[in-house]
Amino acid sequence: MNRPSTYTVVFMDVLAPAVQRVILSVFRPPFEVRFALNYDDRHQLALCRTADFLVPGWAQLSGDMLAAAERVRAVQKWGIGVDRIDIAAARRLGIPVAITAGSNAGPVAELAVALMLAVYRRLYYVNRQMRAGQWPKSEMRETCFQIHGKTIGLVGFGNIGRKLARRLAGFEPAAILYADRHPAAADVEQSLGARRVELSELLAASDIVSLHAPYDDSTRHLIDERALRRMKKGAVLINTARGELVDEAALADALARGHLLGAGLDAFDPEPPDAANPLLGFDQVVVTPHAGGGVFDNVAPVAAHVLRNLERLVAGEPLPAQDVIVSEDRRAR
Fold it and tell me: Which PANTHER family does the protein's record reference (predicted)?
């Protein structure tokens, strides 16, 4: 069978013009790139019908959309989370699904550190006070803390968790603990100064708990009322993973009771959060719009990762094992 002369690659997210220009500068023939104009269901469905390859990031990719994508050879996720892709439908339809494993790990780890610092140093509160003409210098000494000497617990120890452990080492924490179904090799643990423990021990021992687990049925509300009560009084919760990992009502209650010192949240359930979400009303909660991987100087590397995988698929070459979610079948060969 002759190969097509061109392949249409549809980026399903609404991207800023500067980001689009970087992606276009990375891609080359035989790939032609199209970008979504909005998230309207009809528009997204129409794009699916024209695509040889679909590249969703935040955009939802339902079973109906996959069924309508009769030309599609594969779904290549921008990033790693596949909870907004109907993986069961992809398997049923024989559509390969891949991710860009590790591509956003550095930026997400940096944001996790930033949120830790922002909560500990009360940056949201002090910034607002100073813009209102206040000078809360003496108050800060009483209510702020440092990462140095603290025990940090990482829930999930994949690419992001390991990048974060490496970045945290410079702060000289008392300990870095991690909870993960898959233990890291002994040399990895030693090089990162991390020790594997059960989740219950991690919650009880950590001054800061940072979430880096994937979302699936087994991790929904992993941090619920019971887990929050296990956490140390005065601890901080950081979530740069998925909003569904946290019972937000229980978290709001823990903050209102003063059991937790604060939280840094880059993920919500749903997204965007309702304006009435009580978590948005706390001075000790620092929030960002699920933008952990969203840094401009990482666009080109991720785009290059996407391109390499598409070139491998077209050439009939295997993808890196860590990128494969649904393996290749006849539609991608």
Answer: 2-HYDROXYACID DEHYDROGENASE-RELATED
